[in-house]
Amino acid sequence: TNRTFTMIKPDAVKDGHSGSIIKMIEAAGFRVVALKKTLLTPERAGEFYAVHSERPFYNDLCKYMSSGPIVPMILEKENAVADFRTLIGATNPANAAEGTIRKLFAISMEANAIHGSDSDENAQIEGSFFFAHVDQY
Ligand code: GTP
Ligand code: MG
Question: What's the pLDDT tens digit per position in 28-40?
Answer without folding.
Answer: 999 999 999 999 9
